[in-house]
Amino acid sequence: MTAMGTATVGILGAGKLGTVLARLAVDAGYRVLVASSAEPSRISLTLEVLAPGAEATTADAVARESDIVILALPLGRYRNLPPASLGGSVVVDAMNYWWEVDGVRDDLASPSSSTSELVASHLADARVVKAFNHMGYHDLDEGPRPSGMSGRRAIAIAGDDDAAVEATQRLVDSLGFDPVMIGGLSAGRRLEPGMPAFGANVGASELVALVDQATADASPAR
């Protein structure tokens, strides 16, 4: 078991982000399960090339066998996620709304809530945490460094379930990044496209400043 309480990392989505995260998790020593909307046989070659050691499987198997499940699929498909299968699971939402991919969706662009809160509302019994969404997949791929090493990059985390947040913090650290807690799940809004922290590939103190900048921008004028 690599990080306390987590042995198997499941990833739903076998695109660029999903395969990068799978490769990082394999390198960190986890058992890694990956599923997409395609049959496992159709993504197995992709994983052999881009994330050697990761196992292609079904979404049901990912939900059943994983200690942490990362969502790395287009946000517009979140209603296809199985609430019953993911009930009780720690689910890390790494998704963002892209109208070019998801289509123009008012429900995904509402300023009244974070998109992770929409996901959590759908997965009512899952323990949803926001992480891995603000840094580009190529930066994730090139950025992992050992704990304490100069220049280590940071990943922001937002969530309401303390135990799920702690598990995600350990996962982020083990994958080679400094975890930075920014608040409850609603705070994930500060990490979404258009916010100062979106796209951030910086250290912890700089990331905190960018998140705080979003907070200040949202504050009423005095």
TrEMBL record:
<dbReference type="InterPro" id="IPR051267">
    <property type="entry name" value="STEAP_metalloreductase"/>
</dbReference>
<feature type="domain" description="Pyrroline-5-carboxylate reductase catalytic N-terminal">
    <location>
        <begin position="8"/>
        <end position="97"/>
    </location>
</feature>
<keyword id="KW-0560">Oxidoreductase</keyword>
<dbReference type="Pfam" id="PF03807">
    <property type="entry name" value="F420_oxidored"/>
</dbReference>
<protein>
    <submittedName>
        <fullName>NAD(P)-binding domain-containing protein</fullName>
    </submittedName>
</protein>
<dbReference type="InterPro" id="IPR036291">
    <property type="entry name" value="NAD(P)-bd_dom_sf"/>
</dbReference>
<dbReference type="InterPro" id="IPR028939">
    <property type="entry name" value="P5C_Rdtase_cat_N"/>
</dbReference>
